[in-house]
Amino acid sequence: MNTRFLETFLRVASLGSFRAAAQQLNVSQATVSSRISSLETEFSAQLFDREHHEVRLTAAGTLMLEKAQRVIAAEASLRETMSIVTVGAGRVRLGLVSSVVHTWLGELISEIATAFPKLELELTVEPTNSLASQFERGALDLLITTDETQAEMVSTMPLPPLQLAWFTSEALAASLPSGVLTIPDIADLPLITFTRKSRPYLSTLELFNAHHLRPPVLHCVTSLAAIVRLTERGLGVATLPCGSDLESRTLVRLNLEAQLPDLPLYCTWHQTSDAELYRAISELAVACAKAHGVATAL
């Protein structure tokens, strides 16, 4: 079946005239008639009632109308998708938080390389606030951060969140009560978390405030790798994403009654001529984040 014939059918149905359709399609009226006849032969059904002055759809033509519109729309969508693959060359400046770097970034880069083999990535790893400022200045094309950006000419796509948990060293874990722990059980220990005013930082304070407690020491660290190293040295209890590639056998996940909220993630991009490419990369990020979440839950 030739989709051009379906386009011709839709044009005739819309205009109610073979002649008008021929003019819009820049073909002869005979060509339009031939295409419609071919469709009628292929489907063994008369699509138009030609006995009246105005061309009208038959019952069969009415049934075909919606289906034909879907086929044409699907073809247009396919062409748009494949055009993204074709034009997916050049460079994308991607800003992302370290939690993504140490969980599913490797899988995302692999997927991008498969889908867009000619595309170069320039990665910037910093806290969300810093990345947002660079994005606003036009220094970054695409973000994967913990905050949703709402602005003109900007699109945002939510990603599956990262699960957070409490971790500490084997030595510190051995000093804690057995069984399910509470906030008071760790209230005398230093805490190690993300940057000040980050979501994990604020969530940690909220959980302690709910027990009318305050951590004696609260280290705020930009680097996830640094958080892990400090925790391995027994310098406190840390909030870390589950399934991180930095997890080691010397880290112990604490069974704490007070669960940390999941860390939300968002892809954000500018509505430029490359917006469809950024959307395609964001959809790959959704798939990678989802797969990581499933693997972590096992």
Explain how this protein is built.
By secondary structure, the chain is α/β, with parallel strands linked by helices. The protein contains twelve helices and twelve strands. The chain has helices at 3-15, 18-25, 29-43, 59-87, 98-101, 105-115, 128-136, 170-174, 183-186, 199-210, 224-232, 275-297; strands spanning 48-49, 56-57, 90-96, 119-125, 142-145, 154-162, 164-169, 191-193, 218-220, 237-241, 251-253, 263-270. The strands form three sheets. The protein has a five-stranded mixed β-sheet with strand order 4-3-5-12-6, with helices on both faces. The longest helix is centred in the first third of the chain and has 29 residues, at 59-87. It starts with a helix and ends with a helix. The mean pLDDT is 90.
Q: What would the average pLDDT be, to the nearest integer?
A: 90
Overall geometric form? elongated
Fraction in beta strands: 15-25%
Run of helices and strands: HHHEEHEHHEHEEEHHEHEHEEEH
Instruction: Give the tally of structural domains.
Output: 3
CATH class of the largest domain: Alpha Beta
Pick out the low-confidence regions.
none
* Strand segment count: 12
User: What is the CATH fold-level name of the largest domain?
Assistant: D-Maltodextrin-Binding Protein, domain 2
Strand order of the largest sheet: 4-3-5-12-6
- Gyration radius (Cα, Å) is 29 Å
Number of helical segments with 4 or more residues: 12
Q: Strand count, sense and closure of the main sheet?
A: 5 strands, mixed
Distance between the termini: 47 Å
In CATH terms, the superfamily of the largest domain is: Periplasmic binding protein-like II
Secondary structure: helix percent: 40-55%
Q: What's the architecture of the largest domain in CATH terms?
A: 3-Layer(aba) Sandwich
Family: Belongs to the LysR transcriptional regulatory family.
Protein name: DNA-binding transcriptional regulator, LysR family
GO molecular function: DNA binding; DNA-binding transcription factor activity
Pfam family, one: HTH_1
